[in-house]
Amino acid sequence: MPHVSAAERRPQLIRAAITLMTREGVAAGSTRAIAAELGVAQATVHYTFGTKEDLYREVMEQLTGDLVARVERAAPQDAGFEGTIAALAGALWRTVEEEGSGYRLLTELAMLALRTPGLGEARTAHYRQVNEVTERILSETAARTGFTLAQPADLVARFFLAGFEGLTMQRLYVPDEPVNGSDLRALVAATVALASGGLDLTAVPTTG
């Protein structure tokens, strides 16, 4: 059997891990099972990545990159500000509903990372990357369409993503009661209201 370098084996193992854990959940993602998914020895996983946490970290990076690329492709070049947010919400929601999209797996890994020190950096990088690309799209859309942002773009992006994450968790916790179109439309409307100054933030109590 020809030798396969670690550089070649790395993306193969990442994809094998994603396929396995998307199908069976994070708990099934042992190095032994991931190796079996690809048809290699378990030692190959440790030789290539060192530890399971190192592999999981690269899995999170790959899934985040895939998600960001999908969001960027979904951003229309000729829609208004509200239409762009609606397109982003729709594209993101399709990743939630598609079993093989990896979104559910990324959510599971993010939860695991809260109690896994070796994954904390990957969790933070995922959060920042998704926020930054959303903020950039909102800023570019506002500039292109002449929409005046009444609030900083990073605040609007965080608000939108926090609302979307809430809908996502509802969908994952109660799959028999799926989020419908009106929930997404309400999120879009609330985000536009915040961005345009229609939400009075002075009336909202602050912490600290």
Automatic annotation (TrEMBL):
It comes from the Bacteria. The keyword Transcription applies. Residues 30-49 bind DNA. Keywords: DNA-binding, Transcription, Transcription regulation. InterPro entries: Homeodomain-like_sf, HTH-type_TetR-like_transc_reg, HTH_TetR, Tet_transcr_reg_TetR-rel_C_sf, TetR_C_31. Residues 7-67 form the HTH tetR-type domain. Pfam families: TetR_C_31, TetR_N. This is TetR/AcrR family transcriptional regulator. It comes from Streptomyces sanyensis.
